[in-house]
């Protein structure tokens, strides 16, 4: 500028003073504070610590973003309530079970574009886990820690009963027979130890039909839980109620302690064999480190199906209306890198959902059975939750049927017919709704 | 009536009074509008919509109501709620009336007894539920320990399909303190003169109680019945915490299924339809109670 | 209203010496037994709260803990985290109570002492809304708080109290109607404004009913479970009700001693309130139950 007009220079002086004021109030040189991202997750204790360590790594790896880890109880419901309430977290750690219903309710952001840009594809993950994140042709979440379930048995109790502690049952028939030998009553006939109880811990009551080879629905429009395999599974469940007395069992199980405690039925030696997930190792080492135990594929009705399991998964997702999706995805992308993922899964003492695993991961993994759980996830018959928008109600309905059956209140056929009738109605209604809204059912 | 004549509303002073009135009731005009009237109207609208909060409501006419009629779980929850009400309400009222009568008779330590019966009704519902879960525990609960003394094997009360509902009803007796207080006060308000005529006729204590006391406090009983109906049909917290509706949905109450629909399945329209049905049921029951009681309730001075 | 506990006993009872004595004895013993039953759950709660975990699982149970374990309380407070929940609950109770007492007394004054068109209609509309079950407004109310950006905060739990509540307005109006109007008119003649009359004349006279309304609101806030369940999302904002229920759902199967310790701590403030304000509470209950 050649010519300095007094008024202009006055204005400039003011600006300079204002700028100085701003500079004064901002600490240090012009460096923007990192963007704050809130991350809600269900994990506490050591599981939480593992993720907190990964979050800390991420925060250190760059200076633009800062993720804050918040453990949230009932996260599956709270995220929904908060999203519906217009104040969702930036990143949500959900269960795979929520992906479909959340996506259907418009509560999640589809990640396809972000994935394309980041070059993340299905090939990066074990197929059963990737599939859990896909619905209506979109990807709504990405895997974090995976799980499969297996038979856990108490070798000490096997030995006490005069059985080979290294030979777990492989078929349902063997399981029943061994369970019988492992059941102990006191002088007055009171149960003091059970070999096996189909509803302990009761987290996979819906899954027995699948272990017997049944399907939950046909993938399009029919509920199929009344297939003979499901009936056979519930007949098997009922046989326990009959053989050991439902009232006796009720009173016996009501004394079981909380899962994460030394009073846990399996760890306290009240139940000799139990279906449990890959996490069980952690709890055993924490609460009853001296216990001798083993893990093997859960027995199946048909021998050729041996080696199958239920695959379950924790996921990261971005709620719809989250304020910083781009930045949130950066964090998710970071967790999907092999070092971060293996650090997280090692912290949880689980295996990795990624298709490729580093040899060091296996070598340093403390759980002696970790390769088993990994192989269960890769078994072709291994199943996961169905992609049904009404799954939550369906599973509740199945668990009601399950209770009716083990309490001898209904025959398996009756109980399952009720489930089918109700859920078919629900599904029909759901399909009508989707048609109205122009959505596809799967 | 005030002895000082007040100015008509059209006058200057009247207008000032009007302005003051608006100032005083302003909070309630806002509160009534925002937290009551608007939600009521919108809820009625939603009950005819498919609405998940995260997407715009879609009008589906009577669709929700049709679906409800065909929803087994809806009927189960309604039936459970009625079953609970049919036992909890009359039994609770008889129990509290009886206790109030005993307190009324009692000459020594009445204030202490009254305080003891009243106290549990103040225990917060969550603490109440947790304490009773522990009382009802199948293995280590106090109830079963007590039964064992008599050589009885108790059930796993809250996990038993038959006993879970009676257990919840039984637990409700613990919280009748408020009704006891009300009935006792009502007993004590009956003027002594009312008994004199009956005494002249040579009525016994029993006859006086049933012939004079009970009719005279019948408006109070009726009022308790109405508030009881409104309350009991909305039972939520205790079963939600104690049984979660189980086992086998035997303790799934109407409000719980409504809550599930609204906030777990995000079927808000469906939930609103349920809420309006509940409202209509309450109105209908209140009406029936009023009609029936018109014959029995005795209002003084009428 | 006087404390009716000191009123004479049943006037309908025949006073026939020995027969009345026998009846009195029966009633006394019956009430005594029932009183024990009523106190049992509370005593059992206190007893369990002082036991080590092994002793909670002993059959037959010990009623008096062999050696009281006071550390249970410390552990419960740390584990739950009790103080945070307690603070949130106190916050909600205090703000809500102050709000409801102020707003309801203002509104009740408007209904009781001032004349304006549509007053009676609006009043009966207000009373009629008490019939509306909460579920009817639950979903839209959630939407209202959502629009205000209050989901996940404590505000939905206390803010509405500042705009009056039908029940408390009703209660206060009934009480206000019993205040002699001459008192107000005299003040008006002296040139007092309506606000001054409310502040200087009505409030002091209405202290008993305000105590009742306040106490009831404190107890209501302390008790409320559905509200927190609907509106709170982060654990750091939980109230005692929700926090305790959450802790129970996580570790309910085992840690009964800690659960009972936390329950004792939750009941304790109510107990104090009961001891301090029993008369006001009873007066309030009889007011609402009889004077309709």
Summarize the entry for a quick read.
Chain A is α/β, with parallel strands linked by helices and 442 residues long. Chain A has 18 helices and 11 strands. In chain A, strand 1, helix 2 and strand 2 form a beta-alpha-beta unit.
Low-confidence stretches of chain A: 1-29
Oligomer: heterotrimer
Fourth-level CATH superfamily of the largest domain in chain C: MetI-like
What's the CATH first level of the largest domain in chain A? Answer: Alpha Beta
Strand composition percent of chain C: under 5%
State the helicity of chain C in percent bands: over 70%
User: Helical region count of chain A?
Assistant: 18
Structural class of chain A: alpha/beta
Write down the overall mean pLDDT of chain C: 88
Description:
The complex is a heterotrimer of chains A (442), B (302) and C (292). Helix content of chain A is 45%, strand content 14%. Chain A has helices at residues 6-25, 45-61, 75-84, 96-104, 112-118, 127-132, 155-160, 172-181, 208-211, 228-244, 246-254, 280-287, 325-335, 338-347, 359-364, 370-378, 391-406, 412-437, and strands at 35-41, 65-71, 91-95, 134-135, 138-139, 142-154, 184-185, 191-196, 271-277, 293-296, 311-317. The longest helix of chain A is centred in the C-terminal third of the chain and has 26 residues, at 412-437. Chain A is globular, with a radius of gyration of 26 Å. With 302 residues, chain B is mostly helical. Chain B is 69% helix and 1% strand. Chain B contains 13 helices and 2 strands, in the order αββαααααααααααα. Chain B has helices at residues 12-46, 63-69, 72-105, 110-118, 125-136, 142-149, 164-172, 177-189, 193-200, 205-232, 237-242, 254-264, 268-296; strands at residues 49-50, 58-59. Chain B has a two-stranded antiparallel sheet. In chain B, a hairpin with a 7-residue loop joins strand 1 and strand 2. In chain B, helix 3 runs parallel beside helix 7 (164-172), helix 3 (72-105) runs antiparallel to helix 10 and helix 8 crosses helix 10. The longest helix of chain B is centred in the N-terminal third of the chain and has 35 residues, at 12-46. Mean pLDDT of chain B is 89; it is low at 1-5. The two termini of chain C are 15 Å apart. Mean pLDDT of chain C is 88; it is low at 1-5. Chain C is 72% helix and 0% strand. In chain C, helix 1 (17-49) crosses helix 14 (256-290). Chain C has 292 residues and is mostly helical. Chain C is built from 14 helices and no strands. Chain C folds into 2 domains: 4-74, no CATH class; 80-251, Orthogonal Bundle (MetI-like fold). The chains are: A alpha/beta (442), B mainly alpha (302), C mainly alpha (292). Chains B and C meet through helix 1, helix 3, helix 4, helix 5 and helix 6 of B and helix 1, helix 4, helix 5, helix 6 and helix 9 of C.
């Amino acid at each position: 500028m050649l010519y300095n007009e007094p008024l202009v220079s006055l204005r400039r002086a003011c600006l300079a003073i204002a700028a100085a004021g701003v500079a004064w109030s901002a600490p240090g040189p012009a460096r923007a504070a990192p963007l704050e991202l809130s991350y809600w997750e269900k994990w506490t204790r050591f599981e939480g610590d593992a993720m907190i360590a990964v979050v800390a790594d991420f925060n250190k790896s760059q200076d633009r973003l800062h993720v804050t880890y918040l453990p949230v109880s009932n996260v599956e419901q709270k995220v929904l309530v908060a999203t519906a309430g217009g104040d969702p977290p930036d990143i949500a750690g959900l269960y795979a079970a929520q992906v479909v219903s959340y996506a259907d309710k418009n509560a999640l952001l589809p990640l396809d574009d972000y994935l394309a840009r980041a070059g993340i594809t299905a090939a990066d993950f074990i197929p059963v886990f990737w599939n859990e994140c896909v619905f209506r042709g979109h990807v709504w979440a990405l895997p974090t820690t995976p799980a499969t379930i297996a038979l856990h048995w108490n070798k000490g109790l096997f030995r006490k009963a005069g059985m080979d502690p290294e030979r777990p049952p492989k078929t349902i028939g063997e399981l029943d027979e061994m369970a019988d030998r492992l059941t102990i009553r006191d002088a007055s006939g009171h149960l003091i130890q059970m070999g096996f109880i189909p509803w302990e811990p009761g987290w996979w009551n819906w899954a027995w039909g699948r272990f017997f080879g049944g399907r939950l629905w046909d993938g399009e429009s029919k509920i199929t839980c009344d297939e003979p395999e499901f009936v056979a599974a519930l007949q098997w469940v009922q046989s326990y109620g009959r053989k050991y007395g439902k009232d006796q069992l009720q009173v016996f199980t009501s004394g079981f302690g909380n899962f994460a405690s030394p009073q846990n039925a399996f760890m306290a030696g009240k139940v000799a064999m139990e279906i449990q997930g890959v996490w069980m190792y952690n709890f055993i080492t924490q609460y009853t480190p001296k216990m001798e135990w083993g893990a093997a594929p859960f027995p199946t009705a048909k021998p050729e199906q041996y080696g199958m399991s239920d695959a379950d998964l924790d996921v990261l997702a971005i709620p719809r209306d989250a304020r910083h999706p781009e930045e949130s995805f950066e964090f998710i992308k970071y967790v999907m890198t092999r070092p971060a993922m293996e650090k997280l899964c090692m912290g949880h003492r689980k295996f990795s959902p990624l298709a490729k695993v580093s040899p060091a991961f296996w070598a340093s993994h403390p759980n002696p059975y970790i390769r088993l759980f990994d192989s269960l996830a890769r078994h072709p018959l291994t199943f996961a939750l169905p992609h049904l928008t009404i799954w939550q109600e369906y599973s509740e309905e199945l668990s009601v049927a399950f209770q009716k059956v083990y309490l001898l209140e209904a025959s398996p056929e009756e109980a399952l017919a009720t489930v089918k009738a109700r859920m078919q109605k629900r599904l029909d209604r759901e399909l009508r709704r989707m048609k109205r809204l122009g959505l596809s059912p799967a | 009536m005030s002895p000082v004549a007040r100015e008509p509303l059209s006058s200057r002073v009247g207008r000032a009074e009007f302005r003051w009135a608006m100032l005083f009731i302003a909070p309630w005009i806002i509160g009534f509008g925002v937290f009551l009237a608007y939600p009521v109207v919108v809820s009625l609208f939603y009950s005819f919509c498919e609405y998940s909060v995260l997407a715009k409501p879609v009008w589906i006419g009577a669709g929700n109501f049709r679906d409800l009629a065909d929803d087994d779980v809806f009927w189960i929850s309604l039936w459970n709620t009625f079953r609970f009400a049919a036992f909890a309400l009359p039994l609770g009222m008889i129990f509290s009336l009886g206790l109030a009568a005993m307190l009324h008779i009692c000459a020594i330590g009445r204030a202490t007894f009254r305080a003891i019966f009243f106290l549990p009704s103040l225990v917060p519902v969550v603490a109440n539920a947790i304490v009773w879960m522990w009382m009802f525990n199948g293995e280590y609960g106090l109830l079963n320990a007590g039964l064992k003394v008599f050589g009885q094997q108790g059930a796993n009360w809250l996990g038993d399909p038959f006993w879970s509902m009676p257990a919840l009803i039984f637990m409700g007796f613990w919280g009748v303190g408020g009704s006891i207080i009300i009935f006792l006060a009502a007993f004590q308000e009956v003027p002594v003169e009312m008994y004199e005529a009956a005494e002249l006729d040579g009525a016994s204590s029993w006859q006086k109680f049933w012939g004079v006391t009970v009719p005279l406090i019948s408006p109070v009983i009726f009022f308790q019945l109405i508030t009881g109906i409104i309350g009991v049909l909305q039972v939520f917290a205790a079963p939600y915490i104690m049984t979660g509706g189980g086992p086998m949905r035997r303790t799934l109450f109407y409000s719980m299924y409504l809550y599930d629909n609204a906030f777990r399945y995000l079927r808000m329209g469906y939930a609103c339809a349920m809420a309006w049905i509940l409202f209509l049921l309450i109105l209908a029951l209140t009406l029936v109670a009023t009609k029936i009681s018109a014959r029995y309730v005795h209002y003084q001075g009428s | 209203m006087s404390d009716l506990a000191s009123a004479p006993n049943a006037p309908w009872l025949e006073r026939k010496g020995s027969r009345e004595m026998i009846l009195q004895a029966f009633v006394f013993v019956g009430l005594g037994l029932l009183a024990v039953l009523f106190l049992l759950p509370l005593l059992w709660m206190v007893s369990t709260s002082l036991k080590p975990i092994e002793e909670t699982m002993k059959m037959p149970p010990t009623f008096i803990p062999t050696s009281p374990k006071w550390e249970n309380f410390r552990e419960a407070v740390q584990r739950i985290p009790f103080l945070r929940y307690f603070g949130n609950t106190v916050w909600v109770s205090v703000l809500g109570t102050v709000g409801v007492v102020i707003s309801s007394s203002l509104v009740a004054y408007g209904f009781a002492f001032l004349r304006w068109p549509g007053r009676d209609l609006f009043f009966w509309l207000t009373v009629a809304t008490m019939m509306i079950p909460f579920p009817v407004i639950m979903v839209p109310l959630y939407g209202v708080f959502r629009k205000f950006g209050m989901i996940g905060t404590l505000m939905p739990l206390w803010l509405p109290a500042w705009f009056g509540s039908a029940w408390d307005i009703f209660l206060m109006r009934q009480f206000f109607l019993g205040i002699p109007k001459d008192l107000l008119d005299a003040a008006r003649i002296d040139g007092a404004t309506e606000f001054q009359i409310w502040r200087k004349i009505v409030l002091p006279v209405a202290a008993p009913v305000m105590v009742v309304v306040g106490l009831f609101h404190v107890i209501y806030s302390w008790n409320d479970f559905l509200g927190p369940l609907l509106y709170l999302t982060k654990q750091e904002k939980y109230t005692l009700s929700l926090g305790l229920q959450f802790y129970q759902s996580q570790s309910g199967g085992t840690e009964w001693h800690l659960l009972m310790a936390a329950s004792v701590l939750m009941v304790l403030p109510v107990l104090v309130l009961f001891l301090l304000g029993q008369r006001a509470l009873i007066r309030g209950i009889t007011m609402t139950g009889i004077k309709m």
